[in-house]
Amino acid sequence: MERVDLAGAWRLARDGAEPIAGRLPGCTYLDYLAEGMADPFWGLNQAGAGELARHRYRYSRRFDLDERILQRERLELVVDGLDTLCAVSLNGRVAGRANNVNRVWRMDVKRLCRPGQNSIELDFEDPYAALAQLQRDDPLPKPMTPLAGIGHLRKTPSHFGWDWGPELPPAGVARGIGLEAFDLRIADLRIRQRHLNGQVTLLVTAKCSPAADAAGAAVPDA
Questions:
Q1: Which residues pair with 178 in a beta bridge?
Q2: Of the candidates 95, 97, 36, 87, which has an alpha carbon nearest to the alpha carbon of residue 57?
Q3: Which tens digit of pLDDT belongs to each residue from 124-176?
Q4: What pTM value is reported for the model?
C-alpha cells in the first residue's frame, strides 16, 4: 500500500468568500483563531463566534500524484472524522457525500484522479439549516442540548452547547485525511480462540478489499 498524506495546509472559504489559510486535520474555529479571531472562551465573545457556524464552508487544496500510484488496482480517499455534512470532490467531480463524524469514510477516487496536479474540495453544509429541514420533516423530542432535532445529525452533541461548554459547532476533519493506493488490503481481521486440553488454537479470518460497492459511493471502513 502507498499513502499520500493530505494533512497540512489547505484553504478555507466561507460562503464562497475570499479564502483564508486553513489546516487539516483541524476545524473552522481553529483556523479563524489563527487568523486573529477573539477567543470565544473569553468574556462574551461566544456570541459573535457562534454565528460563524451558520454558514457553508469549503476546504480546498492541490496535490500531486505520481503515475505509479494510479497504476494500482485501487485508489481511495480515506477520511477519519469528517465533520459532518460534507460533499467531497476531486478535480471538480463529486466523489462522495458524508453525514457522520463518528466513522472512517473511504471513497473510490481512481477514476477522478490524474497524474500530476489534482485538486480536492470539501464542501460543508450549514448544520443549522440542515437540522431545521430534518426537524420539519421528522420532528424529534427536545434533547438535552438547546438545539431541537440534534438526534438527526451524527455530530458531537456538545458542539451545540452543554452545561459545561459553549455552542460552537465546527466544520473540518477531526483526525486524518489522505489517499491510499493498493491492489489488495486486509479490511478486517477476526481472531477467535479455541481452548482445549490446555492448548489454544487461533482461528484467523481475514476480510480483504476491494469489496463490491457502488461506483463512487462513500463506504465505511470495515
A1: 5, 78
A2: 87
A3: 999 999 999 999 999 988 766 677 888 888 998 889 888 888 899 999 999 99
A4: 0.85
Grid coordinates of 166:
459553549
How many of the other CB atoms lie within 10 Å of CB of 55?
Answer: 18
Q: How far apart are the first and last CA of the chain?
A: 17
What grid cell was written down for 158?
456538545
Would you call 219 helix, strand, or coil by DSSP? strand
- The answer for residues whose C-beta is within 8 angstroms of residue 186's C-beta and 6 or more apart is 206, 207, 208, 209
Distances (CA, A) of 107 to 74, 133, 137: 10, 27, 29
pLDDT tens for 167-205 read 999 999 999 999 999 988 887 889 999 999 999 999 998
For the residues of 132-149, what is the DSSP string, one character each? HHHHHHS-----SSSSTT
